Amino acid sequence: MKVDFQILFCDQTFRFLTFIITIDEAKRRQSFGSCDGDLSVDALPILSDTSDLLQDTHIEKLACRLPARVQGYPWRLAYSTERNGTSLKTLYRNLADVDSPVLLVIKDMDNQIFGAFSTHPFRVSEHCYGTGETFLYSFCPEIKVYRWTGENSYFVKGSTDSLQMGGGGGQLGLWLDAELYRGTTTKCATFNNQPLSAQQDFSIHSLEVWTFE
């Protein structure tokens, strides 16, 4: 949240007036144009491994939309269905010692690329977790980023049977099954997103999870 300060001189004293963006204004800015304008970075981030899903253009467009606190950090491949098999339990296990945000990348059977940024590593949880920096994204083919609306805090919830992101009114922004083979994407109140895939119920071709360390 941006805070601006103005100093006014009155009665030979300094009075500080702080103008804080209201919640309504924050929501307006976050929901204004789900697709951010084209941005660029001076150099691509360093990747510990070659991605089977992301091309340089994908990486560049994602990198400059990440929170400032993780920009500049190397990307480490923590999980890949190509290398680790298709198992949500294995994904959780590979992230057990991770203490950084994570980037989920999915390629479906229609060759569409989409996913999510989570402020916390995926884990089994009784309640939802994460912060307002969490977002969903999709390349269709240009990148669209769906950020937190402020409507609820259903950012991420993990179980042994599924992983879900976003919610409200029975709708889930993104849902993956335990075998990481099938998923669902619908418009949800958390992110006010459009479905990330051309098919609401999609089949997963491959999946990667990157950390920032």
Tell me about this structure.
This protein has 213 residues and is mainly β. The chain has one domain (48-212). It has four helices and twelve strands; from the N terminus they run ββααβααβββββββββ. Strands 3, 4, 5, 6, 7, 8, 9, 10, 11 and 12 form a ten-stranded antiparallel beta sheet that branches. A two-stranded antiparallel sheet has the order 1-2. This is Nuclear receptor coactivator 7b. One of its GO terms (biological process) is regulation of transcription by RNA polymerase II. It holds the Pfam family TLD. Residues 52-213 form the TLDc domain.
Query: What profile does the largest beta sheet have?
Result: 10 strands, antiparallel
Helix content: 10-25%
Head-to-tail CA distance between termini:
25 Å
Low-confidence stretches: 1-41
Overall pLDDT? 85
Give me the Rg, rounded.
19 Å
Order of helices and strands: EEHHEHHEEEEEEEEE
Main features:
213 residues, TLDc_dom, Nuclear receptor coactivator 7b, mainly beta, globular, two-stranded antiparallel ribbon, single chain, 13% helix
SSE topology sketch:
Elements lengths: L2 E8 L2 E8 L2 H9 L24 H8 L11 E6 H4 L3 H7 L7 E7 L4 E6 L16 E5 L3 E5 L8 E3 L3 E4 L8 E4 L4 E3 L16 E12 L1
Antiparallel strand pairs: 1-2, 3-12, 4-5, 4-12, 5-6, 6-7, 8-9, 9-10, 10-11, 11-12
Pfam family, one: TLD
Organism: Seriola dumerili
Protein name: Nuclear receptor coactivator 7b
